[in-house]
Specification:
15% of the residues lie in helices and 20% in strands. By secondary structure, it is α/β, with parallel strands linked by helices. Helix 8 (345-351) links the parallel strand 16 (330-333) and strand 17. The longest helix is centred in the N-terminal third of the chain and has 18 residues, at 97-114. InterPro entries: Competence_DNA_uptake (IPR052159), Metallo-B-lactamas (IPR001279), RibonucZ/Hydroxyglut_hydro (IPR036866). Residues 262-273 have a biased composition (Acidic residues).
């Protein structure tokens, strides 16, 4: 007797499901899955790991049928950093803590991929955009130690821009460009490379074990530009009521063109980083439906408010299914590391996240840093105002104290806090820490001499945690959040 009801087969398989097959039998339409596993495909158990890489991004998604270390398929979304930090468990007294953390992430990825039913295979590697802190560690994570070959088979390598834009290295001689170029020596283990176009509707990625119905992983944005009716000189309100510069269109949005010689033509010259961020491949993970409710996880890369606006403006588009609007538990990997270029009121109100994850570090950006306190404060207040059910975070038995939240203190004050959250513990100016809030997580969690950690005075460098979000493991709309 299976622990879950026997559903219909996955949408990508038309064969009848045996339902009562033994563990050694294979699904007739999906040989990569056991028949028993496929019999439970109305569930889409997935483990989403937001790795601590400091000022950068690295996310692994593993689809499984109960054990993420014996998964059906896996997707790596970015691997890069401009300024790494150590892992919280390292103690921070060793000058090699950053390198040790990098190695730790590589070994954790290897552990998940080695345990797949189709071992050492990545269904997708998604390089969201050509910003250094999203791609420069991809060779380190994926290549053999001597860099002679890929350690894993990559079924699909998705990216935007050109190979030449991915030519900055970190910890390896090889660059991501070396994987992307047509003549790459790593081609034998890369089955397909694709420059992702802007989707006209959510594009479902073909994954083993990705579920039936709407359940699965979707590309919802890439190479995004504003539509013609959004080209305006009007100031755009920020989430906190102030204004930003006018919106900047780019060429290429389907059905839209900026006429040569028009007054708008000058707006096409974006700063390089802003243009790269607008290219970001954004993903939506959709869980299984139950009573009209589906869980969602949004991975927003470095997309800013212009991309958010394009996405929310799709709400009345009949082709745009599954919809982005909240129907069940919803989780947000905050865009652009919590920068004030992203996560505006319109977007937050549309998806209404239960919890938010921010990949962050201590890299200074001129005289500032991200996430800024002033912007994070408005995000958290708007989240609190939604009065959603409290988020549950499972404590680490080895360190049950909820990790702190880190941000750049551009102004004085403390974050607004739900009634159940512990008291704030801000520390000075610049980067500072506060006591954790269940539902708002930063990967940067420890800094020398700051926070509530009794050992903080002994720290020599900043440290961080990985955050694990598991969805649908115990049925549709169930979740667990842990930190490690």
């Amino acid at each position: 007797m299976h622990p879950f009801p026997t559903p219909s087969h996955s949408a990508s398989c038309a064969l009848p499901c045996p339902g009562t097959a033994g563990p050694s039998e294979r699904c007739p339409g999906r040989p990569s899955l056991s028949a028993a596993c496929c019999a439970r495909r109305t569930f889409v158990p997935a483990e989403v790991i937001f790795f601590n890489v400091g000022q950068g991004d690295c996310t692994l998604i593993v689809f499984h049928d109960g054990n993420p270390y014996n998964g059906d398929s896996a997707v790596l979304v970015d691997a890069g950093s401009k300024k790494e930090v150590g892992h919280a468990a390292s103690g921070g007294t060793d000058t090699t803590a950053k390198a040790e953390n990098r190695k730790r992430v590589k070994e954790k990825i290897a552990g998940y991929l080695g345990g797949l039913k189709n071992p050492n295979t990545l269904d997708y590697v998604v390089v969201t955009h050509p910003d250094v802190d999203h791609y420069n560690l991809i060779p380190y994570m994926l290549l053999e130690d001597d860099e002679s070959a890929l350690k894993y088979t990559v079924n699909n390598l998705l990216y935007v821009g050109t190979p030449a834009e991915h030519n900055t290295k970190r910890a390896t001689k090889a660059t991501t460009r070396d994987l992307l170029i047509p003549t790459s020596k790593y081609n034998p283990k890369i089955k397909k490379k694709e420059v992702v176009a802007s989707p006209t509707k959510p594009r479902r990625l073909d994954l083993a074990g990705s579920g039936s119905g709407d359940a699965g992983l979707y590309v919802i944005a890439a190479n995004t530009v504003c539509t013609k009716n959004e080209v305006t000189d009007a100031k755009k309100p920020r989430i906190d009521g102030t204004t930003s510069a006018r919106r900047i269109p780019l060429a290429g949005w389907p059905g839209t063109a900026v006429p040569a010689g028009s007054d708008d033509e000058e707006e096409l010259d974006l700063p390089a980083e802003a243009e790269d961020n607008r290219k970001s491949i954004c993903l939506m993970l959709v869980g299984a439906a139950d009573g009209g409710k589906e869980q969602r996880v949004f991975l927003m890369a470095d997309a800013g408010h212009e991309v958010e606006d394009v996405l929310t403006d799709k709400r009345n588009n009949a082709r745009w299914t599954p919809k982005l609007k909240r129907t069940g538990n919803t989780w947000l990997k905050v865009g652009h590391h919590g920068s004030d270029t992203a996560t505006y009121a319109k977007w937050l109100d549309h998806i209404t996240p239960d919890g938010m994850f921010i990949s962050s570090g201590t890299l200074p950006f001129g005289v500032s840093g991200i996430p800024k306190f002033s912007h994070l404060k408005t995000i958290v207040q708007r989240w609190i105002d939604k009065k959603l059910p409290p988020v549950v975070v499972a404590p680490d038995p080895a360190n049950p104290l909820l990790p702190d939240i880190a941000y750049y203190g551009d102004t004085a004050g403390d974050l607004p806090r739900p009634k159940a959250a512990p008291a704030a513990a801000s520390e000075g100016a610049y980067y500072r820490l506060e006591g954790g809030i269940k539902g708002v997580a930063t990967t940067l969690t420890r800094m020398p001499g700051k926070g509530r950690d009794k050992d903080s005075k002994a720290l020599k460098i900043s440290l961080g945690h990985d955050w694990h979000l598991a969805i649908d493991a115990k049925g549709p709309n169930t979740y667990s959040i842990t930190y490690k």
